[in-house]
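User: I'm curious whether this sequence folds into something compact or stays loose and floppy. Could you predict its structure so I can see for myself?
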Amino acid sequence: MLPGAVAVADSKSGPSLPELTQPKAVPVKPVRAGGAKKTDDAAAPWKAPKVSWPAAGSAEVDLAPVPGPVGKLFLSGAAQVPAVGSGSRRAGKLPVAVYTAPGKAAEAPSKVKVSVAGKDAARKAGVDGVLLSVGRSDGSARSGSAKVEVDYNSFRGAYGGDYAARLHLVELPACALTTPERAECRTQKPLQTQNDTRAGKLSAQVTTPGSPAKSAGAQAAPAVAASGGATVLAATAGDAGPTGDYKATSLQPSGSWSSGGSTGAFNWSYGINVPAVAGGQAPQIGLDYSSQSVDGRMSAANSQASWIGDGWNWEPGFIERTYKSCEDDKAGGTNTTKVGDQCWFNDNATMS
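Assistant: Here's the prediction. I'll summarize afterward.
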């Protein structure tokens, strides 16, 4: 039999590799490190910031809507009503501004009265901040809504613990201005507050109750009359903020403490729960504090704090493996050369 013909590929039509292209260089420039310059806090002695609490006073704010610019859509008939609203309007010399939020023009009163109470009145109401009231003064009995803005730059450094970042607006009952000694009159209702720490301003949407209606020969209730049918607000600080929680920690039953005695020391310990392990050999972990470890120090002693804080102590133990000189470990071993190395003392580790 004759073998069949074998097809051979044409060398002219065979696959070819693409030509290599040289990369094009792109001009570059060195990037300089940016950011704010670091200030040396220890270069100058610390000085307490100036604090000025707002004085008592009242002012009236006109919130009549101002027509905004008429756009092309309104002129062509595509828009039915031009945009209306009011910008931020300050209440006289008070650190309070009132304005109509976008989309809330129909709910806003035409005039509001803003009153700021003195520091003593605020302290009696349980407010360590600014106590104020906002109510409509246009004679309407219908409740409205407006946005209230409080400028706290003059007292942002009154307290520590990042006091400015923890500020927010709360609402109090109207009787907080008349009978602040009653516990129910000091109840605070937190409002959804926007805190601009850079500008030093708090803002929140607030309901402005209508003017109290008076019947013939009758007068309004004393509590309502004192507040003028207004919403009582306060700018005060909470326990926590974006930079941390500053709430005071209490001695809970989960910890044990002792004090007095002949030494006069205060000792406190707090046990920490650990997960169970096989064999029941779970370690016992606890934090211990002793005031004596701080009181007994002198200027000539090492005043360095422990790794968990001044006065605290925690020794969780360790796992130890011991060694000995290889010169002393030649019995039964393969090391016959004199060396200065260390060899295992045994194969077991010691847990202390």
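Summary: The chain has four helices and 23 strands. The helical segments are 72-76, 119-124, 222-227, 292-295.
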